[in-house]
Amino acid sequence: MKRFYHPDALEINQNIYLDDLVAHHALQVMRVKVKDRFCIFNGDGFNYKVEVISIEKKKLKINIISKAENHSESQTKITLIQSLSTNEKMDWIIQKATELGVNQIVPIYSTRSIIKLDSTRADKKLMHWQQVLISACEQSGRSRIPQIYKPTTFLQALEQPKFNEKTLKLILTPNGQNSLGNLGPLNNKEIILLIGPEGGFSEEELKLANDCKFTSLKLGPRTLRTETAPLSIISIIQFKYGDLS
After folding, report:
1. How many CB atoms lie within 10 A of CB 230?
2. In angstroms, rounded to a whole number, what is the distance separating the alpha carbons of residues 89 and 227?
3. Positive or negative CA dihedral for 219, 224, 227, 231?
4. What is the CA radius of gyration of the chain?
5. C-alpha angle 78/117/102, rounded to 5°?
6. Peptide bond into 161 cis (omega under 30)
7. Rounded to whole angstroms, what are the CA distances from 27 to 5, 16, 34, 138?
8. Domains and CATH numbers, the chain
9. Which of 117, 191, 204, 216 has the highest Cβ tally under 10 A?
10. What pTM was computed for the model?
């Protein structure tokens, strides 16, 4: 069933107009017609089945027929702390990490990051990333949109937010001292993944992560790209502790 995002509160039997951009996509791309039914969501964890009741020029009016809880969210809460990368790579990481069920994404500036953004550009990036998240949720069937933060420093990301002491914290590095086979049972359902930039983390950053109780992890004998590493480890984590089978 087609799925679209609508940012406002939703109620059964409510008649609403979809956002202009969503309406344009639904009408011009998906070829929605009067009496067609599809699904909308607003990030509250529910799916809302709707029916098109009228099309007025570029406006799409719908009636909300029913509401159902969406059970697509992973019970394993994964926070991805990702070093900033180039535009296309960062969009790819955010999109695919959302499809794989991450709960939060924290973009960071690390010593060897290629990308540096001033405050204005960072705000624009954040707005763009929000749209990437929404599109990924529409496609993957999620009804909760992951939280994404404005880019911050390496150290600030390690200190905020404060995580439970039992949270599993992993930093991926080619010289990691642990393998996936060394990871035991998960004490709670929270995992933090720390991924470096194209040039990897500096020695100082590795030491800071170690001081913050991050476990260094090596994913096999090959060095992965910054856009490959997070998707690989998230998939493995979801298989080992989450809902991939």
Report:
1. 27
2. 6
3. negative
4. 20
5. 10
6. yes
7. 14, 16, 10, 16
8. 3-69 (2.40.240.20), 77-240 (3.40.1280.10)
9. 191
10. 0.92
pLDDT tens for each residue of 48-85: 999 999 998 889 999 999 999 999 999 999 999 999 98
CB-neighbour burial class of residue 168 (10 A; exposed 0-12, middle 13-18, buried 19+): buried
Nearest to 198 by CA among 81, 84, 116: 84
| Helix ranges (DSSP H) in the chain | 20-24, 87-99, 119-140, 154-159, 203-211, 229-240
Q: Residue 209 pLDDT > 70, yes or no?
A: yes
Q: Tokens 């990333």 correspond to what residue?
A: 129
Half-sphere exposure of 101 (CA within 13 A, CB side): 22
Residues 104 and 98: their CA atoms lie apart, in Å, by 9
